[in-house]
Amino acid sequence: MQISDREAQAKGNYQATSVNNISLSLSRTASVSRTTGETDVQVELNLDGTGKCHADTGIPFLDHMLNQISSHGLIDLNVKATGDIEIDDHHTNEDVGITLGMALAKALGDRKGIVRFGHFVAPLDESLVQVALDFSGRPHLSYGLEIPTQRVGNYDTQLVREFFVAVVNHSQMTLHIRQLDGINSHHIIEATFKAFARAMRMAIEIDPRRASQIPSSKGVL
Predict the structure, then answer these.
(1) Closest Cα to residue 12, out of 54, 43, 41?
(2) Strand partners, 144
(3) Residue 164 falls within a domain, yes or no?
(4) For 100, what's the count of Cα atoms within 13 Å in the CB-facing half-sphere?
(5) Model confidence over 158-205: pLDDT tens digits?
(6) 185, 187, 189, 194: CA torsion to nearest 10
(7) Cα–Cα distance between 197 and 191 in angstroms, integer?
(8) Is 111 inside any structural domain?
(9) What residues pair up with 129 in beta bridges, in sequence order?
């Protein structure tokens, strides 16, 4: 149970983004700090990065997966977290997901100009995972992984779903994850994070044909 929750230390940095010689004033970077009685998490990201990542959460497997998001999503990502991992990894894993989701939402701003939808099917040896997502403003997770083991190293594989629940709820995206094949737990999870990163990379790209418009027939997301 969280004792306190201080989420107000969030700020977005605004910079000009050029698409086909169209200059856009978009919030494409963000820095978010979130402190509770269980964890202290800082996330900095640049949606227009080159895949540089520094992740130090105290959970080595989670750090590895954050590197996949950064590398395959071409997002510069800096994550620092301390938490009560002497109890277990649950709080830190979840709160990293929450803070990452908050940073994504902050960096996207009103989501003007983005493609909005993304999808990808990622293989990793025998594993094959499909991800489709929509920065819709309506959080929803449909999770279809069947991970055969309880742990990968010391990482509890139940925490994969908890991470994505947290990201989805706080970035306000719709996310569908489907496992098409796979028997190795590590391969299934890593293919999932790679597919998620590639789908997100597609969704956050600027669409030059409506770079100054919100990508919705309603005019708002």
Answers:
(1) 43
(2) 178
(3) yes
(4) 30
(5) 999 999 999 999 999 999 999 999 999 999 999 999 999 999 999 999
(6) 180
(7) 10
(8) yes
(9) 122, 179
Measured CA to CA in angstroms, residue 143 lies from 30, 116, 158, 174, 195 at distances of 27, 20, 12, 11, 13
Tell me the residue range of the domain where 121 lies.
Answer: 5-210
Angle formed by the axes of helices 60-73 and 159-171, nearest 10°: 50
> What is the SS3 string spanning 108-168?
HCCCCCECCEEEEEEEECCEEEEEEEECCCCCEEEEECCCCCCEECCEECCHHHHHHHHHH
Which tokens sit at 210? 């409506």
User: Is residue 218 included in any domain, yes or no?
Assistant: no
Q: Which CATH number fits the domain that encloses residue 166?
A: 3.30.230.40
Is this structure's pTM higher than 0.70? Answer: yes
* 30 and 170 Cβ atoms separated by less than 8 Å: no
Contact 195, 131 (CB under 8 A): yes
Residue 220 inside a domain? The answer is no
Backbone angles phi, psi at 188, to 5 degrees: -60, -45
- What does the pLDDT look like over 41-75, one tens digit per residue? 999 999 999 999 999 999 999 999 999 999 999 99
The count of structural domains within the chain is 1
